[in-house]
Design a protein that fits this description.
96 residues
């Protein structure tokens, strides 16, 4: 049996926080705030990726990109859209 990838583990953790929210979970607090707030966070993180790519270190860029991926996964989960739908779209585009 293979170990789940970090992305699979993160997706499962996000799903668990959505299904079993706790007061100490940042992810659960995002779900409680709603899609609008989560979308705002995705936008903020996207801007931070742009800034980091232009003016900051590679390490900072990687950190900001990780934040963007995390918040994007939370947004997908909030909308009940599976990551596999994104993978399928990427695959469709790649095959064109």
């Amino acid at each position: 049996m293979t170990q789940p990838t970090i992305l699979e583990h993160l997706i499962a953790t996000i799903a668990d926080r959505k299904a079993n929210p706790t007061s100490t979970s940042y992810t659960a607090s995002l779900f409680a705030a709603g899609v609008g707030k989560i979308a705002q966070k995705v936008g903020e993180e996207g801007v931070e990726v742009v800034v980091a790519s232009l003016d900051e270190s590679d390490e900072r860029l990687v950190s900001e990109m990780a934040d963007l991926v995390y918040h994007s996964l939370v947004l997908l989960a909030a909308r009940d859209v599976a990551w596999s739908a994104v993978e399928e779209e990427l695959e469709r585009r790649f095959r064109q």
